[in-house]
Amino acid sequence: MTENSISELTQKIKSMGPWHHDIHLFDDFTTGKVFSPDGKLDRSDNDGVSLISPRGRYLRQLDEIYPEGMAGKSFLDCACNGGGYCFWTRERGLERGVGFDVRQHWIQQAKLVQQYRTVFPTDRLEFEVMDLYDVAKQNHKPFDMTYFSGIFYHLPDPITGLKIAADLTTDVLILNTAMMLDPNNPRGLTMARESRTRVMSGVHELSWFPNGKEALRDILFWLGFKDLKVTMFNERKDNFRSRIEIVAAREPGRLKDVTGEALTKSNANP
Predict the structure, then answer these.
(1) Domains identified in the chain, total number
(2) Which of 152, 214, 219, 245 is within CB 3.0–4.6 Å of 232 for a Cys-Cys bond?
């Protein structure tokens, strides 16, 4: 790209902020470096939105789940934000990918990245503005893998929402969510209220946070997943908005090569 066209793209990216995903487009140009040359950006400098670059960790995990790559596989990203996980999954040869988000703000970013990213292919990806509760109406074919991150705790009925995604998943689902830990009720959910207008919030105002890994474990087993592993658990000392990631697979033993703490069904029983 010419110096003028790079300058124009830079201004366009700035005008579409805030950005949550730092995505490599070409040469050493990333969406994040437009705002911060060192790739670090405080929430206060980005309209309260953190700038993240999880590509390396995600691809290492993806390689454990699908060591032979994603050729011939399909991928659904629920609440895809700027599309980062779709683009990173495509790097492994993904056959078909769909990302959706309820906010047009994020889908516009994903489509811009798709237009200008040249370091890896961006074809075979679709991005849609859509509410999770409307996904079933789209008649999508089932997906091998579903990414369900940063959405559970923005839903007024998260169990129904997760079931919608699970019903479209034939192999593996990754659930990543914030939590409000309550050791006295680890199988429960805590209700909260949130803004309808902030770009990182949901649009329904009412939301629910799981009180412990036990709650998510029981839900995932109920949804028909038979192999679960906790691959990330960041517990905050004040128990407010700790974070967990669980990889769930349909088949027993499917995740034997995935690094993490196994969750067993026997432990989920009362």
Answers:
(1) 1
(2) 245
